[in-house]
Design brief:
Blueprint lengths: L8 E6 L4 E7 L20 E4 L12 H11 L12 H16 L1 E2 L5 E2 L3 H8 L3 H16 L12 H15 L7
Antiparallel strand pairs: 1-2, 1-3, 4-5
Helix pairs in contact: 1-2, 2-3, 2-4, 4-5
Amino acid sequence: MGYMLFGAMISYYSPEFDGFIFCSVDPTPPSVTIPRHDVIGGRLTIRGKVDPTIVVANPFDDAQRRVRKAVAGKKKRSRMKERKIGQVIDQVMIWRRYYNGYTDYHGKQVKLSLDEAAAKVGVPKKSLDDYFLQLRMGRKYGFNFNANKDENVGVLRAFIKEQKGKTSGVHELQ
């Protein structure tokens, strides 16, 4: 398991200075290097300080890789009947990240419109809006995303429909 550090401040521990030295904000540009003398016994301590209000996904997840390949234009995606919940979470997370703004390799803050962000993710904005709503409702009703990440979005939709039916029932006045 790894952790996605997109937008995190990356530092490494330097025994020479007895502290952490800031490298850059992730994604780290190729020009950033760590001196060989700071690597002791083949070990290096790296720290990524992430904003705790931002929920990010695992970058090594297969769904995340597919989204990144599609964004880079390396893979043409054929139309799918229904996406997996884990894939939807990754796509919506990346879409909202583009919309809320991110720091590029040059340290410049980039903020895209929802339509531009959707085009960059490779999923129609209408679908992403719907998925975002489904994810919010699933969280509201206590859906277990981790246990169902490999299920189709239909499982989430059915759960929400069932929960809405329970809460919107007619109550008798006594």
